[in-house]
Amino acid sequence: xxxxxxxxxxxxxxxxxxxxxxxxxxxxxxxxxxxxxxxxxxxxxxxxxxxxxxxxxxxxxxxxxxxxxxxxxxxxxxxxxxxxxxxxxxxxxxxxxxxxxxxxxxxxxxxxxxxxxxxxxxxxxxxxxxxxxxxxxxxxxxxxxxxxxxxxxxxxxxxxxxxxxxxxxxxxxxxxxxxxxxxxxxxxxxxxxxxxxxxxxxxxxxxxxxxxxxxxxxxxxxxxxxxxxxxxxxxxxxxxxxxxxxxxxxxxxxxxxxxxxxxxxxxxxxxxxxxxxxxxxxxxxxxxxxxxxxxxxxxxxxxxxxxxxxxxxxxxxxxxxxxxxxxxxxxxxxxxxxxxxxxxxxxxxxxxxxxxxxxxxxxxxxxxxxxxxxxxxxxxxxxxxxxxxxxxxxxxxxxxxxxxxxxxxxxxxxxxxxxxxxxxxxxxxxxxxxxxxxxxxxxxxxxxxxxxxxxxxxxxxxxxxxxxxxxxxxxxxxxxxxxxxxxxxxxxxxxxxxxxxxxxxxxxxxxxxxxxxxxxxxxxxxxxxxxxxxxxxxxxxxxxxxxxxxxxxxxxxxxxxxxxxxxxxxx
Length: 571
Known about the structure:
Elements (H helix, E strand, L loop, with lengths): L27 E5 L7 E5 L14 H17 L2 H9 L5 H8 L6 E3 L22 E8 L2 E8 L10 H17 L3 E7 L8 H17 L5 E10 L4 H5 L2 E5 L4 E3 L3 H8 L5 H5 L1 H8 L4 E3 L2 H12 L25 H5 L10 H8 L5 E4 L7 E8 L2 E8 L10 H16 L4 E7 L6 H5 L2 H14 L4 E10 H6 L9 E4 L4 E3 L3 H8 L1 H6 L3 H16 L3 H5 L5 E2 L5 H12 L17
Parallel strand pairs: 5-6, 6-7, 7-8, 7-9, 8-10, 13-14, 14-15, 15-16, 15-17, 16-18
Antiparallel strand pairs: 1-2, 3-4, 4-5, 11-12, 12-13
Helix pairs in contact: 4-5, 13-15, 17-19
């Protein structure tokens, strides 16, 4: 081969630039024509326009239809909405607007409809199937919600309705976010039979799976009848509104047919019944607006799930906070009453606390509050009600609260002033031993930081179950007025010196002397501290500061539970 280039040949770097055909710039490309070497044909990449008669609706038309359908769903049935308002009730969407941050709600499955053909259902298939579901935020924090719509089928639950709630519960668990249910339902949709019952079962199972994993809040804003009532009972907090909310397993007609007694809806299952007598309602309100505002406040105190801490606020300097009014609130005399709520207010940041079950078992107080910016659970005996004794309902109320706080990593502070358990035949027959054991079990299994403060008296078994050192509290503090003993001086003297008193010429004088001696020997403030059952005797005015310092000391506490499936709570 010659080392020189042929006259007609060109080097590669001198090759001509081939112009790009105009067709390739307009969405076309050239492919070789079959059997014709380098010649090419033009192939269009977009289909040719369809004949006018075959074209479907354009995108603009589809968007318009979608908007109209969304507006129709959101508007609801106007006559049913007016009827809802005439009952003093808001609609499901109005409630969600009050509960959630503005424009934060994302609705899920708004087009869901039932597929039943039962009486009254065939041809009547409204969108949403009577429940609005989705997610939004409360003060910027994610929550999942469902709101039953009484304007459609009376909010009754059928297969599709239940499936939407199942989805919300599943998403809440998977995302570790609180779930809030706004209940306004006549119960199971009778026409759907066992499918409705199966739907309830799916809700209950998911609620049990979520228990202790995410906070669950039920808000009763209308009827909640039959099996539906178990859902609020499984929740951590249940809110009810007076006059409109009612909850029962069997309605007035069934009660009258079985027992012959005629009762109203309100008498059978109104908000005050469950807020005062049954204990099913955690909080009772007069109207929906205040109720939903309180739900928002509660969310601000709760962690999103058991793996996250409760939201904290800025430190308030509580560790150096001197509160002399505490010594004025609590009288030194052990039998003189005072309101423990005032003590809670002095201990809590800004005097604010969220009390639960305020109307039920009022001889014990349970509340969520902040101390130095951190959320804590406060438990305290209430001397103005039954002298602060523990009875069955009080033990159950405190036990449930203690277990909730422990499940979600909220430290416990117990303010103790208890003369014992309530004696009596009715108490024993109603199971006070078992009920008291529930509180004992709850405290013993709690692994969160636990601080006990004994203000005045702490007698007998009630002292033990109110988070004493013997059952595992981390820090026990006492005021100089503390009296820790098996029983009070009067009772102890009557038992120990019964014969001497019976034989004495002046029993009253002898009893007074013996009571003074017993008090000096066994009820003096130093007795328990000398034996290591109290860590420190503090000035009442230093209570808030001492608790804040104790919480700071215990904030990194780690105490794994025993290796087992679960304990057997004495219920």
